[in-house]
Amino acid sequence: MRFLPANLDALLVELEDLPQTIALMASLKAHPIRGIREFVPAARTMLIRYEPSVLTSVAIIEDLSRRHLVAEAAQDAPLVEIDVDYHGEDLPEVAELLGLTTKEVIERHCEAEYTVAFNGFAPGFSYLSARTALQVPRRRSPRVRVPAGSVALAGEFSAVYPKDSPGGWQLIGTTTATMWDMGRDVPALLQPGYRVRFVDQARRRSSGWRPSTDVRAGKAPADAPRAEALGDTSATLELHSIGVQALFQDGGRPGLAAQGVSASGALDKGALRLANRLVGNDVNGPVIEIVGGGFEFTSRGSSVVCITGADGTVTVTPEGGRGRSVGRGQAIALDSGDRVRLGEPAAGVRSYLAARGGFVAALVLGSVSTDTLAGIGADALAAGQVVGIAPVRHGVVGAPESAPVQLPDASQVVVLDVVMGPRVDWFTSESVELLSQQRWVVTPQSSRVGLRLSGATPLARTHERELPSEGTLPGSIQIPPNGQPVLFLADHPLTGGYPVIAAVAPHHLDLAGQIPIGTAVRFRPIRPFTVVETSSPIAP
């Protein structure tokens, strides 16, 4: 094993091959380490996130180095058989790459028994491996849209796209099987360890053969409810205008990496917690995350609200009266009919609106958060919508416990602390220096998935070989082939196939979520990049 830094609270464990990764995953499930919050297995790596107050990276390295990793095939694992119409547009090219006929490609794909190695990229996207897998490279130019149900190959893996999305895998067919369905007790059809066989639909039609499938969906885990309402309504907010975007968010849904689901949640978690604390709610309870200004609502019934995050004006206008300015970061008592408007932020970009009692919103996989990449959670809020406020159950209106956070604006250069790694050695020494020396500008293509950055000089790799998919984190700075960084935020994909050169330190993630478009960013490494070999573990 090799251990590479992924952040102040994360390690990337590099293994010899996929069987060893699967063996490590099984070992961690059978003999967990107290303090590990989550692990994300991938092709030849395991991304481990841990709680630094409970566990050190040295302790993790010492523990894992002593483990004897032997992958054992689970012959009694559930089997899922998937009908495929083999008319994928890349099938002829795949056959040519492999030196086979298209018929031989189909036969080999159907003869192999695949195992679900791990889930990632998107909810329900399962990486399937087999000893006799057809190995082909990704497409040189990824497609902007791959239709849901596309059966694809890349590297040593096969997969089915669960939803329409961009993608660079080779498409060999399609299936009508639903890979991700929130109406099922467990939304993902395929779970790690399941066995999978692909069945040629043409053969089934011509022979009358019917597949025998052990499972189509599993039972609901106790900690993963599908959807439920939060309770009765004591008052409502009538939304008049939304601004750029408004979403329900909370502390997120951590712990669902096995389903291919990232934690998501509020981008500025400090602002989330403060808003809830100031109205007496659970600190990770539901709020409305608002981008920019122009958000406007009327309180129907008496309510207490608080607005934190971005720095901008807040105007409260009583019914039939004159407007008055109120401060952010404080509890605001509203009478029925009071109209509230948020002005354009002078600094920062995201505001957080909390209401005493909490908003009434459906829980999806244990959270109200809207994951914009995965398509999990409620749709974006819209003008004319009425949002319910739950009755107060407990808690008292609080007060700020710390000094106000300094928010970024477009006139300043925002400096973000970063931890170098895990893939520093994929870049030239000049590019490694350039990451911290050059200014990077936040482009309009940025979103909750990540900040897309543009610099005068792209970062160059030392080689152009493909990186097998591996886990990513909020804060990971991924470098695609164009050399311009993407800084992942809360709705990032769980796994990615481009190298990550560094990660924004946890204490600056909230700041990253508040950076406006057009702002210049500089990265400041806070410790040297060090690879730890199991033969000679060293302190972090």
Quickly describe the structure:
The chain is 13% helix and 31% strand. With 540 residues, it is of the alpha+beta class.
Descriptive notes:
The strands form 9 sheets. A 7-stranded mixed barrel has the order 27-34-31-32-29-28-35. A 6-stranded antiparallel β-sheet has the order 21-20-23-18-15-26, with no helix packed on it. It starts with a strand and ends in a 7-residue tail after the last strand. With 540 residues, the protein is α+β, with helices and mostly antiparallel strands. The protein has 4 domains: 58 residues, no CATH class; 129 residues, Beta Barrel (Cyclophilin); 163 residues, no CATH class; 120 residues, Cyclophilin-like (Cyclophilin, Beta Barrel), CATH 2.40.100.
Shape: globular
Estimated share of beta-strand residues:
25-35%
Roughly how many Å is the radius of gyration? 25 Å
Given as residue ranges, the uncertain stretches (5+ residues, pLDDT < 50) are 211-230, 535-540
- Number of DSSP helical runs: 8
> What about the largest sheet?
7 strands, mixed, barrel
Mean pLDDT: 89
